């Protein structure tokens, strides 16, 4: 009986409707989700939980509405942008969603698009242009860091945070270098040891927004400890004093800002697809993404995160699918030899750019997350381009050849 109760308690609610109140002004809104009991293992979250699948439904519907009303999809979104979170009624802080739309449209050449399905051809293939919005909530949690100035002229930043490959080492070193007045090569960052100050969570696209304010404050405090304006002056005093180091620890956490503003990052994707109808071959040939993530600390690492999200979204749109055995409920596809995901040849050049200003209402660094937002809106942008190319509205993913025949 205990085992049975445990099984019944396992559940996952994908919060797909959480994205709806932040996107477009809707005077009358009702949101509802139902949970079904299925004979499969309980799933768990994938990147951009809730926002990603929710955006596929919402942005596909927005495109369909634009065609129905004979309004350009970009114009429809601009007309219906909301300046406040419609559930909390709080104004959005430093929102540059409209700039993402207009800048992306200009970079892509969207004005040349014919508002008619099957109107573009190239080398015997149908060509379609599609777009969709992107967004993800700006999250922030408590974080701690220690900064030490050493007689050899270097500074050490110590925290238990981890870098999954997204560039956390880089942005922490840059933050310390900027605050202390040192070159980056004089900064040594130590991560990943649980004996170090609590670096916070690497999840929810919040690492940079949580950790860099703590590093900033720790750097300011170590200069106060040394009674110096910058690190070079502190090093001179340190050598004269004979001390082993100057050090300071600091923490950062959300304050009262969440009671005054709603915080999200924003973006827009534009893509071009070609369809060979004879063999139902779909390819993505061009991609432009424009994002507003507050202050961009390092354009290379930020753009790389966005590109990674777009690639994941292309996999979701065209390839990735988990099949289950109808008798056992176990996955039939269970390893990377049988699971289809994008390779280099499947991905076009992804042009990424950023707009907006630092969001100093959110944290002292003005930064918001940019990890998960990249995947949101990718799948509907592809599906909307497929409709423009073929006149077929695809409402389920992935968009496999059988759906295009």
Detailed description of the structure:
With 405 residues, the chain is of the alpha+beta class. The chain has two domains: 15-26 and 42-139 and 259-404, Aldehyde Oxidoreductase, domain 4, CATH 3.30.365.10; 143-253, Aldehyde Oxidoreductase, domain 4 (2-Layer Sandwich). Helices cover 32% and strands 17% of the residues. The protein has eleven helices and nine strands. Strands 1-2-7-8-9 form a five-stranded mixed beta sheet, sandwiched between helices. A four-stranded mixed beta sheet has the order 5-4-3-6. Strand 8 (281-292), helix 9 (299-318) and strand 9 (350-354) form a beta-alpha-beta unit. Helix 3 runs parallel beside helix 10 and helix 9 (299-318) packs across helix 10. The N and C termini lie far apart (50 Å).
């Amino acid at each position: 009986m205990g085992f049975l109760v445990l099984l019944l308690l396992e559940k996952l609610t994908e919060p797909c409707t959480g994205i709806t109140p932040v996107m477009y002004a809707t005077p009358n809104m009702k949101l509802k989700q139902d949970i079904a009991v299925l004979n499969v293992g309980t799933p768990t979250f994938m990147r951009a939980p809730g926002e990603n699948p929710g955006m596929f439904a919402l942005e596909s519907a927005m495109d369909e509405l634009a065609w129905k009303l004979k309004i350009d999809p970009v114009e429809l979104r601009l007309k219906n942008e909301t300046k406040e979170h419609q559930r909390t009624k709080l104004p959005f802080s430093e929102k540059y969603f409209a700039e993402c739309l207009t800048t992306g449209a200009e970079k892509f050449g969207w004005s040349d698009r014919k508002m008619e399905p099957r109107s573009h051809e190239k080398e015997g293939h149908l060509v379609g242009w599609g777009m969709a919005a992107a967004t993800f909530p700006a999250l922030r949690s408590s974080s701690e860091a220690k900064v030490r100035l050493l007689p050899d002229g270097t500074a050490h930043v110590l925290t238990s945070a981890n870098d999954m490959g997204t560039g956390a080492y880089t942005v922490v070193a840059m933050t310390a270098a900027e605050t202390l007045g040192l070159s980056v090569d004089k900064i040594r960052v130590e991560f990943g040891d649980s004996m170090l100050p609590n670096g916070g969570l690497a999840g929810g696209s919040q690492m940079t927004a949580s950790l860099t304010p703590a590093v900033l404050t720790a750097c300011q405090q170590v200069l106060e400890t040394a009674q110096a304006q910058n690190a070079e002056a502190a090093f001179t005093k340190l050598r004269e004093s004979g001390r082993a180091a100057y050090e300071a620890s600091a923490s950062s956490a959300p304050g009262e800002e969440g009671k005054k503003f709603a915080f999200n990052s924003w973006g827009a994707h534009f893509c071009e697809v070609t369809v060979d109808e004879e063999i139902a071959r779909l390819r993505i040939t061009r991609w432009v993404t424009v994002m507003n993530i507050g202050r961009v600390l390092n354009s290379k690492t930020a753009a790389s995160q966005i590109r990674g999200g777009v690639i994941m979204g292309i996999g979701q749109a065209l390839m990735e699918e988990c099949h289950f055995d109808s008798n056992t409920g176990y996955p039939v596809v269970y390893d990377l030899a049988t699971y289809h995901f994008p390779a280099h040849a499947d991905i076009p050049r992804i042009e990424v750019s950023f707009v907006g200003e630092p969001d100093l209402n959110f944290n002292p660094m003005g930064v918001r997350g940019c990890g998960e937002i990249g995947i949101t809106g990718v799948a509907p942008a592809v599906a909307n381009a497929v409709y423009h190319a073929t006149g077929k509205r695809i409402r389920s993913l992935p968009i496999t050849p059988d759906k295009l025949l």
